[in-house]
Amino acid sequence: MTHKNNVRRVVGSLILAASTSTLAAPTPEGDAFGDYWSPGKPNPALCKSPVLVGTPVGLPRCLQASNVMQRLQELQDIATLNDGNRAAGLPGYQASIDYVKQTLERAGYQVRVQPFPFTAYFPKGPGTLQALTPQPAEYVWEEDFTYLSQTDAGDVSAPVVPVDLSLGAGNTSTSGCETEDFAGFPSGAIALVQRGSCNFELKAENAAAAGAAGVIIFNQGNTEERKGLENVTLGDTYEGGIPALFATYDNGVAWSQTPGLQLRMVADVIREKTQTFNLVAETRRGDPKNVVMAGAHLDSVFEGPGINDNGSGSAALLEMAVLLRKAHPQNKVRFAWWGAEESGLVGSTFYVNSLSDEERKQIKAYLNFDMIGSPNFGNFIYDGDGSSFGLQGPPGSAAIERLFEAYFKLRGEPAEGTQIDFRSDYAQFFEVGIPFGGLFTGAEDIKSEEQAQKYGGAAGQPFDPCYHQGCDNTANIDLNALEINGDAMAFATSWLSLSTKIIDDEIAAAAEQAKGAKTLRVQSVRQSERWGNHFVK
Fold it and tell me: What residue stretch is flagged as signal peptide (predicted)?
């Protein structure tokens, strides 16, 4: 009886705190929080209670990593039966959509499957790049050159013609950005273009319009960091119709200074216009004019099953939705599983752009969960207030960041900010001014010594050594990371489902500040170099 009373006091204090104007983490008596959020099995009565399961204590307690792992095994089995992947536009993704849909419908949800057009792009094999004249040479795949993502297929042998290059350290290359750069360009040649200023899509389409049979874009070379190979993309809307390769700066310089150079370039890819799907469901109860939205991308890359990226976010979101099927939120909770994130955030962008102004205003917060079980993890919270990386989210985003920070503090777990880099599905929500936040446990970046001391794991190694690879399977999940970040997801979602006052107050304060300013308040606009996991310029 005493433990049950402690639980009720904890739940009551959280709900009370949620209704106050500032986010102040409650300090419960004794070890009630530690006991309540421990990994052991929760009281079944709690998780079946429509009132208690939807609270900031009850929902994290009921969301168990072991149950999420069972859902991840389902996604792994789907990938295994479908050529090892769940990439958008392929059968493994359709099977993933079917699994989530059936699970939600069994839980009593009405599910909306939203189709949208996108350009499916899959490398069939490595590319080829050879010098034919004046001296034969073979260039090394993924060392000297790679594909620009979304390149069209092609096999081209032709002379190479440099286009408005600007070489050397500190250069300000605008190569290929203007149609005038291609004045006198010989039709049928391969355009040799330098990175810089405008996006890759524009450079390649300008080359195609000038009659180029293929285009090679080499890195800019203005700094040491912009000399090697990188993941770059032409974008989902590329319409050049010619193959495009990306090469190192040093090779680009050498080719530009080789008279009589002819190259053979081969892009062995599949690229076709098709459609795929988002999946959206929402709680039966809650204010439909004050929506808390939580989302995760469901698709994997072509190269692997995508169990951490992003089966982890998708499976935890699904488990949370099932737990909330009979909850009594004050605000409606909407869940979304996005398609074609790996193709450039296509599904989430389509969804946001399809909303009316009124529908956008009804979304009070968007919470994004992309990779929350990395094997060499850190606990990262999107930097909504800009205190760590300088770029603030829309008003209300700082409050969401503080909410996540409060949870990790209550749990006694370290956490830190992660940059708003527009590599995941919050990007379009940011663009239209919807407050957002979310969690991330790390991808290809290297864990520092300081981070290894905070979180454990191996310094000098990627947070996820299997990022975008075939080994991103169920063995690539850290259960502790999945438990902590899944609970943090549940905590923030349930809190905001009961009250969005912390967001409302921040939005009102920002509006008042803008109203009272003596000079025009200018919204900072990003000049994005990233789109999903690739550079666009």
Answer: 1-24
